[in-house]
Amino acid sequence: MTQASRVDESASGVYIISATPFTDDGALDLESTDSLVDFYLDKGVAGMTILGMMGEAPKLTEEESLAFTRRVLQRVDGRVPVIVGVSHASNQHVERLAKASMGLGAAGVMLAPVPNLKTDDQVHGYYAAIARLLGKDVPICLQDFPQSTGVYTSVAVVHQLVDEFPQIVMFKHEDLPGLRKLSQLRTQSEAAGRRRISILVGNGGLFLPQEMLRGADGAMTGFAYPEMLVQVCDLFAQGRPEAAEDAFDLYLPLLRHEFQYGIGLALRKETLRRRGAIRSAAVRKPGPVLDATDKAELTRLIGRLEARLAMRASS
Fold it and tell me: Which protein family is it in (predicted)?
């Protein structure tokens, strides 16, 4: 197995948030893990992030997390960097999973704060403690997702952490609304001559064009049509923002539909199943289950997207 280089501040493009495939009865599906990795690579992603919140990481045992990580890294075989989500209430668990993942060939780890930290000092203290625990050889992506964690990470705290810990090389921006925060991260950092880190954005890619215009380097999110995310980021890299937004707009109805809280993961997995990436759309219990109306609605949206893509191809 070939190991990809470790992720650093230059990371850009699409680091797809991978789903975690299960069988219909809820067992980890390693065969579909292989096909899903192949699907993502075929769509041109620059990297992958596994065991994220939409990867159902909290529903996996520690043994399952390592088995899935090992299988993904074997299948990727160094072709793109793989970042492993290690967020957990226990610092010891974070350390074990992070160091085990790096030993298997991961390019870095992603870390969200434990829930309900209230002050800047508490947020800084948590991240600082983990950074010291993992050491300078483990690249860290800070995940800023207050809608899920209940933790607000201020611009000042991000800057302080970047200054203190060179292993913090990436920021996953998912605050909502967060466009102004993204601008502040970039402009204040530049004005102070601070080390520039990679900023990749989440929230399903729903605001990707605006975030790219405000200084994001790419996306770290999941969408069942990752080729759109790749195309949009590539067009921005080529200096063609209008073409990027035109491409984005074609997929927007389906992207918006998949973004729904509660049911979004089930919709994403069903679309991935229909596209041949995984064998089952099962979400591990407890989790959402689509009914007949949900599936018919998804069929209609996919059909409309495919029709628009066909029209664009023929024009």
Answer: Belongs to the DapA family.
Q: Tens of pLDDT along 146-180?
A: 998 999 999 999 999 999 999 999 999 999 989 99
Cα separation, 21 vs 33, in Å, equals 6
Mean pLDDT, rounded, for 34-39: 98
- Is residue 8 in a domain? no
CATH of the domain at 277: 3.20.20.70
Cβ atoms < 10 Å from Cβ of 120: 14
What pLDDT, in 10s, does the model give residues 246-281?
Answer: 999 999 999 999 999 889 999 999 999 999 999 999
Sign of CA dihedral 217, 223, 229, 230: positive
**4 in a structural domain:** no
Cβ atoms < 10 Å from Cβ of 294: 15
Q: Tally the residues of the chain.
A: 315
Mean pLDDT of the chain: 96
**Global confidence as pTM:** 0.96
Q: Answer yes or no: is 150 within a domain.
A: yes
CA atoms within 13 A on the CB side of 80: 25
Are 46 and 15 spatial neighbours (Cβ–Cβ below 8 Å)? Answer: yes
Residue 305 amino acid letter: L
Spatial CB neighbours of 179, under 8 Å, sequence gap ≥ 6: 207, 210, 211, 214
Are 52 and 15 contacting, i.e. CB atoms less than 8 angstroms apart? no
Q: What is the extent of the structural domain holding 110?
A: 13-314
Helix (H) and strand (E) counts in the chain: 12, 8
